[in-house]
């Protein structure tokens, strides 16, 4: 049966990969990558020579058809993205959905679990993690203000991804809508050399980044307690 393995890969530190992931990456016929250059760094560290094929946010239907033909032809494929668990706030989700729709029961989709930035951030936060609301990336324009109000009113811990270009804008909006009793945590560059976690009320965290602009770079997870 055609098999697509959804493989979690590191979010920074290349040692964060499971033995099973490495074995499957070696065994499959082809690895679908968000950016083949990024994945090749991982593959070369572990001496894996499996062929790669790119699948990214702009790949389109023709690429999905090509992938489904490979699977129909009996090839086993692995899907990886640039960081973490494919399909969680990255292009992998659309591919899995399209292939499941096209191939139904004739496709086996197998999870090979690994790192995820939101879960790693929650795990070190000390915030309540028994239940939480994951928002992926916030919209840039439409619905953004409404969402901030929903976050302020939420009884659950809220977690989302943010880019270095928008983090200050987002912190300023949070400082405007959140009551000071709500804590904000920022996990930056998890598993990398400049890994950092800071928390406080939204105004304090905003002030920290305004005063330390050299820290407004890298990758961010935002948590609201
Ligand atoms: N699928 C990935 C996962 O499982 O976490 C997420 C992909 S999403 C396109 C990329 C976003 O995840 C980044 O913009 C950042 O917000 C977050 N992220 C990825 N790696 C991170 C890291 N090492 N530290 C903090 N956040 C990270």
Give the SSE map:
Blueprint: E1 2-7, H1 19-27, E2 30-33, H2 36-45, E3 52-54, H3 60-72, E4 77-80, H4 92-103, E5 107-112, H5 117-125, E6 132-137, H6 144-153, E7 157-162, H7 167-177, E8 184-188, E9 196-200, H8 202-211, E10 220-224
Parallel strand pairs: 1-4, 1-5, 2-3, 2-4, 6-7
Antiparallel strand pairs: 7-10, 8-9, 8-10
Helix pairs in contact: 7-8
This protein binds S-adenosylmethionine (SAM).
Describe the structure.
With 225 residues, the chain is an alpha/beta fold. It contains eight helices and ten strands. The strands form two sheets. The protein has a five-stranded parallel β-sheet with strand order 3-2-4-1-5, with helices on both faces. α7 runs antiparallel to α8. The longest helix is centred in the N-terminal third of the chain and has 13 residues. The model has no long low-confidence stretch (mean pLDDT 96). Bound molecules: S-adenosylmethionine (SAM). S-adenosylmethionine binds next to α5, β7 and β10. The site of S-adenosylmethionine has 23 residues, from α5, β7 and β10.
Quick summary:
With 225 residues, this protein is of the alpha/beta class. The protein has helices at residues 19-27, 36-45, 60-72, 92-103, 117-125, 144-153, 167-177, 202-211, and strands at residues 2-7, 30-33, 52-54, 77-80, 107-112, 132-137, 157-162, 184-188, 196-200, 220-224.
What's the arrangement of strands in the largest beta sheet? Answer: 3-2-4-1-5
Q: Give the SSE order as H and E letters.
A: EHEHEHEHEHEHEHEEHE
Task: Indicate the low-confidence ranges by residue numbers.
Answer: none
Radius of gyration: 19 Å
Let me know the number of strands: 10
Global morphology: elongated
Mean pLDDT: 96
Would you tell me the structural class of the helices and strands? alpha/beta
Q: Percent helix among the residues?
A: 25-40%
């Amino acid at each position: 049966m055609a098999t697509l393995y959804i493989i979690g890969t590191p979010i920074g530190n290349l040692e964060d990969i499971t033995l099973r992931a490495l074995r499957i990456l070696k065994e499959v016929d082809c690895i679908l990558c968000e950016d083949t250059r990024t994945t090749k760094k991982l593959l070369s560290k572990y001496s894996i020579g499996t062929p790669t094929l790119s699948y990214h946010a702009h790949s389109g239907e023709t690429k999905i058809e090509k992938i489904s033909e490979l699977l129909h032809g009996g090839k086993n494929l692995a899907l990886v993205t640039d960081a973490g668990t494919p399909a969680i706030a990255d292009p992998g989700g659309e591919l899995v959905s399209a292939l499941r729709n096209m191939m139904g029961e004739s496709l086996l989709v197998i999870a090979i679990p690994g790192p995820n930035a939101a879960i790693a951030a929650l795990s070190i936060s000390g915030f309540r993690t028994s239940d939480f609301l994951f928002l992926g990336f916030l919209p840039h324009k439409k619905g953004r203000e409404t969402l901030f109000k929903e976050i302020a009113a939420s009884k659950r811990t809220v977690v989302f991804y943010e880019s270095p270009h928008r983090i200050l804008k987002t912190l300023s909006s949070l400082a405007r809508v959140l009551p000071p009793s709500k804590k904000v945590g920022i996990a930056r560059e998890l598993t990398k050399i400049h890994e950092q976690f800071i928390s406080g009320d939204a105004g304090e965290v905003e002030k920290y980044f305004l005063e330390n602009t050299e820290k407004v770079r890298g990758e961010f997870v935002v948590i609201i307690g």
